[in-house]
Amino acid sequence: MPTFVLFVIASIVFILGGGQLQNTLSTILSWIDTKMAWAYLLVYVINFLFFMYLAFGKFGKVKLGDPEDKPHYSSFQWGSMVFATAIDASILMLSIVDPLRYLQHPAFGLKPFSSAAYGAAHMYGQFNWGPMAWMMFAPATIAIAYVLYVKHGKVQRVSAAITSLQGDSRGKRIARRVIDFLVVFGIMGGIGSSVGMEIPIISKVLSSLTGIQDNMALKIELFLVLFILFAVTVFHGLNGGIDRLSAAHIWTALGLLALILVVGPTVYILNSETNSLGLMAQKFISMSTNTLPNGGDSTAQQETIFYWGWWLSYMPVMGLFIARISKGRTIKQVLVGMLTYGTLGCMSFYAIFGGYSLWLQRTGAVNLVHILNTQGQAAVVATVIGTLPFKMIVLALYCISCFIFLATTISSSAFIVSSFTSLHLDDGEQPSRWNRMIWVVVFIFFSFGIVMVGGFKTVQTVSTIAGFPLMLVCLLLLHSIWHLLTAKDKVVAPVVVPKPVVMRRITVELPRAVRGPMILSPDHAR
Fold it and tell me: Are the C-beta atoms of residues 158 and 144 closer than 8 Å to each other?
């Protein structure tokens, strides 16, 4: 209940503060970008190296379960569920808009709008949604799965998987509660950022489709539609609600990607992606450690910090979800699966959507950069989709996809947060419907507050702040995983104690002393 009250208060502050809070939030974001960028980047580097060592070392063979356990899902089913739950509608917008930002503010000191800038713009978003990002789900995933399936413990909250906080002392109980609060805070920040970013986009696209005026009334109506969709899904729970949305999520994503690849500049997109893969391999280390100590255009770095905070905020939710569906898999299978299905899925959006928007800009078909700078992101998305054949059908499909994408991720998040905030759940028991519905209301209310403040900077700030305290949670989880694995690895072999050599005395009586055969002593007879 205290957590619920806190977020209600924060939502009211956002709603009443409105646009006046933008300057304050921009100041906070600027401080984080200039003073704490090194911390975000360093945590991600440590996390990535740690799990690459686990995946391809001896610990990668550790099965998350008993030796006889088999995975419940095929590799494709598992990968589809992971991708569908992790990715919300933001990728439908950002994969179109991000390359345009990188084009006019390119990384690596490139000249804006140059040929090299186009190549870097196509690649940079794929880095921010690529291997480094997806490995941020691994700390909670591996720690929770190990405790659940190897130690046969019970994990209702992320704090239960942190070994250094286990115990009945007052200090450890307080620490666990703080961790659980930070987890819920991060989830709320991530969810609020997602909805706060995407509702204006859907509103703009719907306005273009139907001619309805794009105003606050339309946004409120969209919030009501989202509330009904979330409420029905979360009310039904995992079976019959979230699972069906996940399936719809995958097919709408594949449909949109296939449509643009086929009717768009196919050869240009494929050539751009081939170039981006090589460029990412060349620049991977420099992008991972880009703190700009000597100045320069920091747009690309600020985007990375925003995304690193956002991925951190989703780490607890995704960790618990992926852990739940990964019984019977080895650590290597889980990590490599996240890298392949998750990374390739996200990179596909930036390759195709981003490639198409850059092609429109480069050929002069539409000056998308000008639209972005003067009218905002929503106008860019509506314009890009409007250039495709069957415009009305594509616009309708895009809006439907946005709702499905949002509903999948946010319904799952509400379900998980309700688990975190339940006092006690037995094995296999779902949180009460009353608890689930409360968090649906809180999510909608908090997200509406972010929309009232407005602006992409607001979304970036909320997301970055939400991920900030979870850096500590990430490091604690890494320590726990190492402690669990090395404790298992250091099984003490039984000490073999050799049997003592018994010197047996043999007594021999000479024949002349006793008639008959030799008599051996009783000791020897044994």
Answer: yes
Contact, 269 vs 449, CB < 8 A?
Answer: no
Q: CB of 94 within 8 A of CB of 87? A: no
Domain that holds residue 279: 1-486
Domain-embedded: residue 501: no
The residue among 234, 265, 260 whose CA lies nearest residue 410 is: 234
User: Would you say the pTM of this structure is higher than 0.70?
Assistant: yes
CA distance 386 to 288: 36
Answer yes or no: are the C-beta atoms of 134 and 339 closer than 8 Å: yes
Nearest to 242 by CA among 230, 256, 252: 230
pLDDT one-digit tens code per residue, 267-316:
999 999 999 999 999 999 999 998 877 767 778 888 899 899 889 988 98
Whether 372 and 380 have beta carbons less than 8 Å apart is answered as: yes
What is the per-residue pLDDT across 477-525, written as a single tens digit (0 to 9) for each?
999 999 999 986 554 444 444 455 454 554 444 444 444 443 334 444 4
Q: Domain tally for the chain? A: 1
Mean pLDDT, the chain, integer: 81
Confirm whether 495 is domain-assigned: no
Please give the pLDDT value at position 495.
Answer: 40
523 part of a folded domain? no
The torsion angle over the Cα atoms of residues 433, 436, 437 and 442, rounded to 10 degrees, is 160
* Cα separation, 209 vs 270, whole angstroms: 30
Is 496 within 8 Å of 64 (Cβ atoms)?
Answer: no
Residue 358 CA to chain centroid, in angstroms?
Answer: 27
- Which own/partner contact pairs does 41-45 have at CB distance under 8 Å and 24+ positions apart? 41/288, 41/289, 41/290, 41/291, 41/304, 41/305, 41/308, 43/308, 43/471, 43/474, 43/475, 44/132, 44/136, 44/288, 44/308, 45/288, 45/289
The rounded distance, in Å, linking the Cα atoms of 133 and 50 is 14
Bridge partner residues of 63 (DSSP): 330
CATH code of 456's domain: 1.20.1740.10
Distances in whole angstroms, Cα of residue 360 to Cα of each of 96, 180, 367, 386: 11, 46, 8, 12
Measured CA to CA in angstroms, residue 96 lies from 126, 191, 446, 459 at distances of 12, 21, 26, 17
Q: Identify whether 123 is part of a domain.
A: yes
Tell me 212's DSSP state.
-
Tell the burial category of 58 from Cβ atoms under 10 Å away from its Cβ (0-12, 13-18, 19+).
Answer: exposed
For residues 94 and 258, give the distance between their C-alpha atoms in angstroms, rounded to a whole number: 18
